[in-house]
Amino acid sequence: MIPAQFDYTRASSLDEAISLLSNGDGGAKLLAGGHSLIPLMKLRLSEPESLIDIGRIPELRGIREREGKIGIGAGTTHHEVETSDLLREKAPVVADCAGEIGDPQVRNRGTVGGSLAHADPAADYPAVMLAIDAEVHLKGPNGWRSVKASDFFQDMFTVDMAEDEVIVSVQFDPIQAASYAKLKQRASHYAIVGVAAALGVENGLIQWARVGVTGATGYAVRLPEVEEQLTGQQPEQAAIDAAAGVAGNSLEDVNSDLHASEEYRRAMVKVFTRRALEGAVARL
Ligand SMILES: Cc1cc2nc3c(=O)[nH]c(=O)nc-3n(C[C@H](O)[C@H](O)[C@H](O)COP(=O)(O)OP(=O)(O)OC[C@H]3O[C@@H](n4cnc5c(N)ncnc54)[C@H](O)[C@@H]3O)c2cc1C
Fold first, then answer.
1. How far is the CA of 229 from the centre of ligand 1 (A)?
2. Taking Cα atoms as reference points, which of 34, 35, 10 lies closest to residue 20?
3. Which atom number of ligand 1 is nearest to the Cα of residue 165?
4. Which residue puts its alpha carbon closest to atom 27 of ligand 1?
5. Along the 284 residues of the chain, how does pLDDT read in single tens digits?
6. How far is the CA of 81 from the centre of ligand 1 (A)?
7. What is d(CA 30, CA 54) in angstroms, rounded to the nearest whole number?
8. Does some domain include residue 191?
9. What is the value of pTM for the model shown?
């Protein structure tokens, strides 16, 4: 399929991208890796009047640690995240997650910002961003804003982002005891169910747990029943099994499609919650 006609401009700075976006009167769209937007345009499900290419803006690239926080630029590719020494050392769950996305072509082109903005119900990063309590940093014509991941994902393909805002980066604290486990769709590798778990353990007890699930519902959400079940417990197999047993009880409107029925997805939420928790405990 051939997309509808569109104008193309390459922005060379963040502010130029914001200005082009604001002047586009809602008809302009940012183009990052193009691995979600271009397929939509080819199917004519998206017909932007103009594309603003943000693929070569230095301010949007890179992974760094500053004042104890880790920041990933929105234009950083999945491959760069997967292979980052800093992430492997300070937040290995994020690098693991990137390595699970699609195939090498997708990982070489697709970006963190594009994935978060697109908010596909089966995308991998959203579950991890919820578990590590990440903040999404945005800039628009009125300045900067940051939104917690738990507020950012609002519905299927819907996030807390205005039409003239750009995701600049995502930030989070270093974390070791976190893990991501997913049942992937064989062809695309999108998550049929993906669960990310992060644990805070002190004095031998779980002080807090954050668990995010993707693929199961219209958008990624936390599993409060699992988090409550784990808090105050010893990080041992019995606690993991009990928590996995209640996983998904809070989920409403579970997806059912050609890849998996609701019943199967609900069963897999329990299985992959257990695997994610076992992975997080193994990293304590
Ligand atoms: C075959 C295939 C398999 C895939 N498998 C997986 C998978 O297993 N797991 C997974 O999670 N994903 C998967 N993906 C999706 C992939 O990760 C995409 O790269 C990603 O969803 C979008 O990133 P992008 O940089 O390509 O964004 P684009 O396609 O360029 O843009 C997507 C949307 O985000 C907007 N946007 C882009 N950057 C920004 C920004 N900085 N600020 C604000 N808005 C922005 C665009 O305007 C557009 O609306 C797959 C894609 C393909 C084609």
1. 34
2. 10
3. 43
4. 114
5. 899 999 999 999 999 999 999 998 889 999 999 999 999 999 999 999 999 999 999 999 999 999 999 999 999 999 999 999 999 999 999 999 999 999 999 999 999 999 999 999 999 999 999 999 999 999 999 999 999 999 999 999 999 999 999 999 999 999 999 999 999 999 999 999 999 999 999 999 999 999 999 999 999 999 999 999 999 999 999 999 999 999 999 999 999 999 999 999 999 999 999 999 999 999 99
6. 14
7. 7
8. yes
9. 0.97
Atom of ligand 1 nearest to the CA of 37: 29
Nearest to 118 by CA among 49, 233, 223, 34: 34
Pocket-forming residues, ligand 1, beta carbon under 6 Å: 29-37, 39, 54, 74, 101-102, 106, 109-111, 113-115, 117-118, 120, 123-124, 166-167, 188-190
Q: How far is the CA of 32 from the centre of ligand 1 (A)?
A: 8
Tokens matching residue 174: 């270093």
Nearest-angstrom CA–CA distance, 271 and 74: 31
Closest ligand 1 atom to 166 CA:
42
Check whether residue 116 and residue 200 sit in a common domain. no
Ligand 1 probe mutation, 20, 101, 107, 129, most atoms within 8 A of CB: 101
Per the structure, the complete domain to which residue 123 belongs is given by: 58-172
C-beta separation of 169 from 74 below 8 A: yes
**Residue 112 is part of a domain; what is its CATH number?**
3.30.465.10
How many whole angstroms from 217 Cα to the centroid of ligand 1? Answer: 19
In a domain, 2, yes or no: no
* Total number of residues shown for the chain: 284
* 166 beta partners: 139
Antiparallel, parallel or unpaired: β 153-155 and 158-159: antiparallel
C-alpha 34 to ligand 1 mean position (Å): 6
